[in-house]
Amino acid sequence: MDSVIVCVHGRSEQWHLKDQILADFQGGILEGLGRLPAPVAIGRERILLAFYGDLFLPDAALAPASGGAAGQRLSTAATWPGEISSYRGSMAPSAQQATPLTAHTAADPLYQINVARAILREAHQRGLIESGSAEGEQAPTAFSPHTGGGLVWLYSLLVHILQGLEHILGAPRELLRLFVSDVDLYLHNAALRAQVMGRLLALLRQQAGRSIIVVAHSLGTVVAYDVLNTHREIPITAFITLGSPLGLSPFIYQELLPPVPPGQKHPFPANVAAWQNFYDPNDIVALVPALAPLFPGPPGQAVICTPVQNNPADPHSLTGYLIQQAVAQAINNALLCKTPLPSKLK
Asked: Which of 10, 12, 189, 240 fits 178 for a cystine, CB–CB 3.0-4.6 Å?
């Protein structure tokens, strides 16, 4: 059976050209395969990209999602005990009924604050904060969004906390700030999420009759999981995730599709034959790399989670992941339609 690799890019790619991102995937995959002793030959034309970055541009107009306005938020932002609740979840009804026209008008500063604080806490626990930096540590104990000037104050606090992310060792200056923003927009803007998922779904459906390998990076792993788990009629030979934030709970994990009742776990997608997750221990986006317990599958099937050493200057680097021999071997095995033995599952 003919094989095809469908790639799903991550956050903040709205400022890059589609062909540039595709070239990064193609070059990284081919270079990684070239490091193996006996790689499967695959042409660039069989490495495809589900591009959705243009939907995140500030001037990108969004069609209304079914049953809602273009900028409607899907849900109130999840919070941990003691965290601030969603600003948009507590707005006055007149404000909630506004009809934004782009993805960015549905942004929720409080959700972004909570995610940024969760990342900062994890970075502190791992010892990844530059010495002498206390940015982002202060947070309000109480706040009423209905008070005058509240939204301006919120955005000021968000800017302050996001500045703290710039002090995380190994994290490029803009990476985490844009990641926090794009995660919020994708998860909570109904129209944006539907259109992003639609791009990947359309590409997968075009590959009917082929062996499909999905390689996803960063926020793209969230998009890919949403699509694979809601369209189980599409068989997937291998799902390979790189630098994935899927395990970040509750901010991402609890908001995956389709929703599950409280206390239940999201499943290992039934249409996926094998799922391998790769992470650099210093990749702060991959906050919770142990995905197997979070996505249980039937006996003998589980997410294989493998640590790798990515670029020290950018542990979240896409190409840095793709050229890893372990990642290349997973792709090579999938091209050969070889799935990991049950004894190796963990």
From this structure: 12
Helices 109-125 & 175-188 angle (0-180, nearest 10) = 130
Task: List, for residues 144-169, the tens digit of each pLDDT value.
Answer: 443 444 545 445 555 555 555 555 55
| Dihedral sign computed on CA atoms, order 229, 77, 251, 79 | negative
pLDDT, tens digit (0-9, with 9 covering 90-100), for 63-98: 665 544 444 444 433 333 333 333 333 333 333 444
Residue 299: Cβ-neighbour burial (10 angstroms; 0-12, 13-18, 19+): exposed
Q: Would residue 202 count as lying in a domain?
A: no
* 231 within 8 A of 331, measured Cβ to Cβ: no
Tokens of 185: 């927009």
Residue 175 lies in a domain: no
What's the domain count of the chain? 1
- Domain extent at residue 218: 3-54+210-344
Q: Which residue has the higher pLDDT, 142 or 14?
A: 14
Establish if 238 belongs to a structural domain: yes
258, amino acid identity: P
The pLDDT assigned to 85 comes to: 37
Q: Is residue 229 part of a domain?
A: yes
